[in-house]
Amino acid sequence: MKKSGILNRHLSGALAQLGHTDLVVVCDVGLPIPAGPAVVDLAFRAGVPSFAEVLTGLLEELEVEGAIAATEVRQANPECGALLDRHFPGLQLVPHEELKTLTRQARLVVRTGEARPYANVALRCGVPF
User: Fold this and answer.
1) Does the structure show a pLDDT above 90 at 125?
2) Which among 10, 20, 87, 96 is annotated as catalytic?
3) pTM, entire model
4) Which of 8, 30, 43, 89 has the lowest tally of Cβ within 10 angstroms?
């Protein structure tokens, strides 16, 4: 059995298939997930696992060249907004409706147990060189 890193086999396998510029959306339990992208649902119960835990774990596994979040996050969920600003100094902000539309283009959606509004981010995969 794998000893460290991401243990969820569905998530680990999905991450291994990502390529440069693919989008990965990390979302709360309330974001509508469109048909199309692969979905790994990690939600166990409200708040478990948290958005912060999942995002931190994914960033240990992924090279990210850009991130997009909803403009509303900074006001409606300041803790999440601050977390995103810390991880992504060049964070791009778009209206929430646009982020939902962008989710249709994702290759992978990772659903967390987060139950606070606007805890969502689209990550554009980079390359490690």
Assistant:
1) yes
2) 20
3) 0.95
4) 89
